[in-house]
Amino acid sequence: MNYTLNPLKDLDPALLPRLAEIQMGDAGLLSKLGYPFVLRYFEIAIKDERAFGFYAQEKETNEIMGFSLASPEPSALTTKLTDNKKWFLTNILKVLFTRPLVFLQMVISSITIQGQMENEAIECIYFTVDPKFRGQQLGRTLQTALMDEGRKRGYKKIFASIETWNTASLAATQANGFTIIKSFREGVYRRHRLESKL
Ligand SMILES: CC(C)(COP(=O)(O)OP(=O)(O)OC[C@H]1O[C@@H](n2cnc3c(N)ncnc32)[C@H](O)[C@@H]1OP(=O)(O)O)[C@@H](O)C(=O)NCCC(=O)NCCS
Question: Using an 8 Å Cβ cutoff, are 128 and 22 in contact?
Answer without folding.
Answer: yes
